[in-house]
Amino acid sequence: MRWLSDLFGVNMPSTYLFATTDIGIEDLAAKEVSSLLNIRGTSVEITTGRVYFRAKESDIITLNYWSRTLNKIYILLAREGIESLSDIYRIAKSIDYTAYIAKNQRFAVRAERHGFHNFTSIDIARVVGQAIIDSYLDSQGHRLKVDLEEPDVEIYCMLRNQELIIGVNTSGFSLHKRNYRVYNHPAALKTTLAAAMIMLSNWDSKSGFIDPMCGGGTIVIEAALIARNIAPGIYRKQFAFTKLPMFTYVDMDDLKSKFMSLANTSYYPIEGIDISPYHLEGAIMNAMSAGVDDTIVFKVGDARKLRDYIDFEPRVIVTNPPYGIRMHHRNLQKLYHDFIFSVKEIPDVTIVVITAASREMRQIVSKADLELVHARKVLHGKLNSEILVFNT
Ligand SMILES: C[S@@+](CC[C@H](N)C(=O)[O-])C[C@H]1O[C@@H](n2cnc3c(N)ncnc32)[C@H](O)[C@@H]1O
C-alpha cells in the first residue's frame, strides 16, 4: 500500500490500535495484521478475541479494507487497571477527544463488562459519556451532544475484571459482514472463520480447491477473493473511520477504485458443491454479487460420493458440514463417515473442516487412518466448534 503513504505524507502520526477477532483465531489475525502492515517480530500482542499493535493512522484504512480475519478495528485511547467507577471517570476524562470528535459531531459510548463488579455496563457507559463531555468542555469550552441511535463517533469501553480499555471504533458494524451476501444460508459460516480456514489450508491459489458442502458459498467466495487479491472491504458502503476528523479529506471513491485496481481477473480452480439446488442457487447469487462467479464452478452434488462429481484432482478441501443441530445423530455420523471415506480415495489432499460435532469427526478421521495435523477450538457465533486439519 505504498501510495497510502503518498496520500498521508511520510511523517504520518503513529497510534496504538486494537482489533477484535473471533475467539480461537487470534494468532491468525495477528499474522494477518503483521503481514498487511509489514510489522516484524512479536509486536502484535494477542489476548482473548483481540490483538493490539502500534500502527500509522493510514493503516486504519488498510486494515478496514483488507483484513479478512478482523471484526472491528479501534484506536486505543486507554488501557489501564481500575478499582472503581470513579477510576473509570478519571481515566476517561484525562483523554483529549478533539482528534476524534469534531465540535458538530454527536457521539455514543458502547460499554461491555466481564467479571464481578458492583456496577453495570450501563453505569460505565454513563460515566464515560459524562467524562467525554467534561473533558471536551474543559479543553474546548464546547458541550458535545450524545446520539445513541446514529452517532457520528462511537467510543467503546470494555472492562474485563480490572482492566479497562477505551477505544474509538473505526469500522462501524463488524467487518465480517462483507456486504456481498444477497442470499443468507440458514447455517452460514462467518466470513472471518472461512478466511481463517483457508489460511490454515496453505492453499497456493493455483491448485484445485473444493468446498463439497458449500451452502451459500462463503468458503469458495472467500477463496476467490484471496486468489484475486480483492479487498473484502470494497463491498461495504460504510466505515466509521470516514467520519473521524483525521480522515475527512480522504476521497473514498478514489480510494476504492485504487484498491479495486489491485485485483486480478485470472481464473482459479475453485469448486463449490452442495446437495441442495436451492442453496446452490443462493451461492451462485452470492458469487455474482461479489463479482467472482467467473472463477468458481458450482455443481449440485453429493459429498459422500465426491469422485463422481469432480473432474479434477483437488489439493485442498475446505468445508463446513452440517453440525447436526437439526439432524438425527446417527445420520450425522453416517454423513461424516461417508464424506471422510470418499475424500480418503483422493491422494495428497489437505482437508480443513469446521464442526461443532468434532468428537464424531475426530473418531471418523482416526477410523479412516488419516493424519490429523492441526486442531483448534473456535467460537462460531455461540457454538463451541473445532477446526480440524488432516491429510490423505
Ligand atoms: C453448514 S451448511 C454450509 C454453510 C456454508 N458454509 C455457508 O456459509 O453458507 C452445510 C451444507 O451442507 C449441505 N449438505 C448436506 N449433506 C450434503 C451432502 N451429502 N453432499 C453435499 N452437501 C451436503 C447442506 O445442504 C448445507 O448447505
Summarize the structure.
This protein is of the alpha/beta class and 392 residues long.
Keywords:
392 residues; alpha/beta; VC0802-like; Rossmann fold; 2 domains; 8-stranded mixed sheet; 7-stranded mixed sheet; 11 helices; 15 strands; 32% helix; binds S-adenosylmethionine
What does this entry look like structurally?
The chain has 392 residues and is an alpha/beta fold. It folds into 2 domains: 2-169, VC0802-like (2-Layer Sandwich), CATH 3.30.2130; 191-229 and 264-391, Vaccinia Virus protein VP39 (Rossmann fold, 3-Layer(aba) Sandwich). Helix content is 32%, strand content 26%. The protein is built from 11 helices and 15 strands. The chain has helices at residues 2-8, 26-37, 59-66, 85-93, 121-140, 191-201, 218-227, 252-260, 277-290, 329-344, 358-367; strands at residues 14-21, 45-47, 50-56, 70-81, 106-114, 145-146, 153-160, 163-169, 208-211, 270-274, 296-300, 314-319, 350-355, 371-380, 383-391. Helix 10 links the parallel strand 12 (314-319) and strand 13 (350-355). Helix 6 crosses helix 7. The structure holds S-adenosylmethionine. S-adenosylmethionine (SAM) binds next to helix 7 and strand 10.
Supply the number of helical segments. 11
Biggest sheet descriptor: 8 strands, mixed
Q: What series of H and E elements makes up the topology?
A: HEHEEHEHEHEEEHEHHEHEEHEHEE
Q: Any idea what the radius of gyration is?
A: 23 Å
As laid out across the biggest beta sheet, the strand order is 2-3-1-4-8-7-5-6
Second CATH tier, the architecture of the largest domain: 2-Layer Sandwich
The best one-word shape is elongated
- How many DSSP-defined strands? 15
Which range best describes the helical content: under 10%, 10-25%, 25-40%, 40-55%, 55-70% or over 70%? 25-40%
CATH topology-level name of the largest domain: VC0802-like
Strand content: 25-35%
Query: Oligomerization state of this entry?
Result: single chain
